Every structure is written in C-alpha cells, then in structure tokens.
Amino acid sequence: MTTTLHIPGKHRFVEEALNSLVVHHPNHPSVIGRWLLINEYSESAQEEVGVMVQHLKVKFPFLEVIQKSAFDQGQPKSLNIILRELHSGDLPYWLHIEESWRTVRPFLEWSLDFLDYHPYLHQLQLYLAAYYTSHTHIRITEDVEVIALDSYIDLSDVDARNWRAYGLKWPSYSLRPSLTQVSFLKENPHLIFNADPAWFPVVFEFDFSIQWQLLGGSMCAVSQEAVVRQEGHTSTYVL
Fold first, then answer.
1. Which architecture, in CATH terms, is 2-230?
2. What is the pTM of this model?
3. What is the CB neighbour count within 10 angstroms for residue 226?
4. How far apart are CA 185 and CA 199, in angstroms?
5. Strand 145-150 vs strand 133-139: parallel, antiparallel, or unpaired?
6. Which end of the chain is more exposed for a tag (fewer CB within 10 A), N or C?
7. Cα-only R_g, the chain
C-alpha cells in the first residue's frame, strides 16, 4: 500500500483499508507473508506522521512502514520501491490495495488458489471495471466467477501522454486493487513506473499498462467486486 499520511483524512482511510482486509481474513497470518506501507515524504509534518505511524503499528503490529525521503517523492517512486522489494524477495504474489479501498468480502484463499492454477493470468483485479471486453468466464464457486479480460486498445502506436483520447479504454493492467504474479515482474525486471512528475497522476500508470501488455502481461477480474471505494475518496481523474 502507498499513502500520504500528512494529508488530512488519509490516516483514517489507511486504518479502514487495513482493518476491513483483516476482518474478512482472520487467517491472514498464514496467507499474507508481508504487510508493507510506503508513506510519502513531508518535510512539514514529520512529527505528526510519526505519531500516526506508531498508532498504526500498535493496531496492526504486523505492519511494516517504509518512510520515504525527499529524494523519493511521488507515487511512481513509491511503487518502484515496492517493485524492488518484490524482486529481492521470495513472495509469489503482490496484493496491491490503496488506502481509498475497503474490502467487503473474503477473497484471498480462493484467489491465490485460482492464480496458482492459472499462471498465464498475470493479474487478478478485485474490482471489475466496465472498460474491458471479455471472452472467457471461469467459474470458481457458486457465487464467484473470474473473467479473463482483453484491452480495447491497439498498442501498435500509442502515446501514453494522450491517454484522454482513449476515453475509458485502458490496456490490460491497472493499479486498482489486485493480485499480481511476481514471477511475471521478475521475468521483466526493466518494467518500472516512470517517475517524471509531469506524468502524474494518470500518464505514468497508462504508460506502465502499455509496457505490461506489450510484454505479454494479461489480466482477469472478479465478476463480483471484493473491494469498494471508501466514502470521501477523490479520483485522480478529476485532479
């Protein structure tokens, strides 16, 4: 998870995101190998942020917090820190949930089993967006279905900076809550997020998604969302 604790209200979002995940997965110690929170740098609120971090660690003692320096400012650099940690570790999956999302149903056990048996599907989205086509529906349980997704976009000549021209069309990767096969990331070590400040908040993700798809990355999604946006969230699309 990446966050900006110095911004008012973010601490509450982080706490709810973590708590809802724990509540729906009481067996999390046997399923999640590492809980990592990357916090944005703030020169003016270091003491206040320190108190918030200690509060989170008391409530979630398993939580590991990496406090960024001024050199590492920006969400793309936060995500690249996560990628470095994944490359140097031995965890098979990356569960990515930003602080603005809340878990509403259990998903870890069946989704990990699903990805184990479908290694050609590199990312499982926990929230089904409306801007993908679908060809394959895979029944998991009576209530759960996974949909293999395809992008609408022909990537033969795409400029990420013109992402608005594609409307709601998006390549087959997203920073929405998801589980990602770490093996695919390790097979493509040069796949990183562009940290150019001019590419925040959307272009850097669109660019990464293009790279992902060109390298053969695939995506699927649950038919019934396992997470929802927390009330009060402001989308980066309107910034």
1. Alpha-Beta Complex (3.90)
2. 0.91
3. 24
4. 22
5. antiparallel
6. C
7. 17
